């Protein structure tokens, strides 16, 4: 099931997109990142470090570099902004990104896909909310990146986004929940987690699944 054509600001979920763009610029493809760049990439994803994101954003040449990478990945509804966090996207496009990051036929090399997923699996505990709420008890094969911010043009209300992957017996779920107009971050997280849990429950019931699925 693929839904989600409304545009939302990305906030920090775009950091996954930035890392994908960085890896796609490596020449030759799959060339290892330097230790310093690798450390910044880890900080950007695992703890959502904004300073690291700014450095890597500049390294990919900002919105121009992101747009070029997104063409290679097949994103159609993501519009880069000169400030990375104000990039706009749709849930459908985030599913396309997750597919590119996990598919053997995607544009990234196997080591690069493993690197990104490894970082999304190590997100710090206080940021491991969101689509991970839909996992089965005890499942540690979960990969997530969340984004959250207040929106000035929405009266300071919160946008709360969560993208990720849940791998379980017989299923490889890719999930993107984007939302806004929340009175608080806590309320936004509650809505995102409730939505992800409901959708994945319905998808488990509806499909036996023998490959990646999207929600």
From TrEMBL:
Ranges for domain Beta-lactamase class A catalytic come to: 35-156
InterPro entries, per the entry: Beta-lactam/transpept-like, Beta-lactam_cat, Beta-lactam_class-A
Read off the Gene3D superfamilies from this record: DD-peptidase/beta-lactamase superfamily
Q: Which residues form the signal peptide?
A: none
GO terms, molecular function: beta-lactamase activity
Pfam families annotated for this entry?
Beta-lactamase2 (PF13354)
One GO biological process term is:
beta-lactam antibiotic catabolic process
State what protein this is by name: Beta-lactamase class A catalytic domain-containing protein
């Amino acid at each position: 099931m693929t839904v989600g054509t409304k545009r939302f600001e990305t906030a920090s979920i775009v950091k996954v997109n930035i890392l994908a763009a960085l890896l796609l610029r490596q020449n030759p493809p799959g060339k290892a990142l330097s230790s310093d760049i690798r450390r910044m990439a880890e900080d950007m994803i695992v703890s959502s470090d904004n300073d690291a994101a700014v450095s890597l954003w500049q390294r990919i040449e900002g919105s121009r570099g992101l747009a070029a990478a997104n063409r290679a990945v097949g994103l159609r509804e993501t519009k880069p902004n000169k400030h990375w966090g104000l990039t706009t996207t749709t849930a459908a496009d985030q599913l396309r990104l997750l597919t590119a990051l996990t598919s053997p036929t995607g544009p990234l090399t196997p080591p690069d896909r493993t690197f990104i997923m490894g970082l999304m699996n190590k997100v710090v505990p206080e940021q491991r909310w969101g689509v991970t709420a839909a996992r089965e008890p005890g499942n540690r094969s979960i990969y997530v990146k969340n984004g959250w911010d207040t929106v000035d043009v929405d009266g300071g209300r919160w946008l709360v986004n969560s993208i990720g992957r849940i791998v379980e017996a017989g299923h490889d779920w890719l999930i993107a929940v984007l939302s806004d107009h929340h009175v608080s971050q806590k309320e936004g997280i509650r809505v995102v987690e409730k939505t992800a849990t409901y959708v994945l429950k319905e998808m488990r019931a509806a499909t036996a699944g023998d490959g990646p699925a999207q929600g």
